[in-house]
Amino acid sequence: MHGKNFIICGLAGWCIEIAFTSAGAFTQKDKKLMGKTSAWMFPIYGMAAGIGVIAPKISHWPLLSRGLLYGTAIMTTEYITGSILSNFDVCPWSYEGEKYAIDGLVRLDYLPFWMAAGLMYEKLLTELNHNFIKQ
Fold first, then answer.
1. Per-residue pLDDT tens for 108-117?
2. Which of 17, 48, 71, 127 could disulfide-pair with 114, CB 3.0 to 4.6 Å?
3. Containing H/E element for 119?
4. Could you give the angle at the alpha carbon of 55 between the alpha carbons of 50 and 60, nearest 5°?
5. How many CB atoms neighbour CB 58 within 10 A?
6. How far apart are CA 124 and CA 21, in angstroms?
7. What burial letters (b/e) apply to 90-114, b meaning 16+ CB within 10 Å?
8. Which residues neighbour 41 within 8 Å (Cβ) at sequence distance 6 or greater?
9. Are 63 and 116 in contact (CB under 8 A)?
10. Which has the closest alpha carbon to 64: 108, 106, 17, 118?
11. What is the maximum span of the chain, computed from C-alpha positions, in angstroms?
C-alpha cells in the first residue's frame, strides 16, 4: 500500500501545484492561467505518503495541531530537498528576495497552505487506507 500511496501523493501534489500556480497567474492578470510544476516535485510530493503512517497515531489531536505538525514537516522537507537540489542547480523554486523567506528555500507565510495540504493528504490517505481495508 505504501508504494501506491507514494504515487498517489506525487500525482496529487503535482495537481495541487498546477492549480496553485494557475491561481497565482490569475492574480497577475494572466488570462492563460498557466500552471506549472517540475518532474523533481513528484518524489518530493510522494514523500507525503508518510502522513498515512502518522495520521492514525495522532487522529485524536485537534485539527490545528495536526495541521501545524504536517505544515512544519512539509516545510522542513521543502527546505532540505531544496538545499539538495540547489547544490546541483536543479531546484525548481526560489523564494529569493521574498518577504518571510528562509535562504530562498521556504516561505514562512506559506505555512497555512502547507497545513491545508497536509490535512488534505491526511484525508486522502485515510480514505484510501479505509477503502483498502474494506476490500
1. 999 999 999 9
2. 71
3. helix 111-134
4. 160
5. 14
6. 21
7. ebebebeeeeebeeebbbeebbeeb
8. 10, 13, 14, 17, 92
9. no
10. 118
11. 50
Q: How far apart are CA 40 and CA 72, in angstroms?
A: 21
CB atoms within 10 A of CB 49: 21
Cell of 105: 528555500
Unique residue bearing C-alpha cell 510530493: 45
Which triple of cell numbers denotes residue 23? 491561481
**pLDDT score of 26:** 79
Tell me the pLDDT tens digit for each residue of 6-21: 999 999 999 999 998 8
DSSP H/E element including 101: strand 101-102
Asked if 50 and 70 touch (Cβ cutoff 8 Å), the reply is: no
DSSP lists the bridge partners of residue 106 as: 102
Secondary structure (3-state) at 27: helix
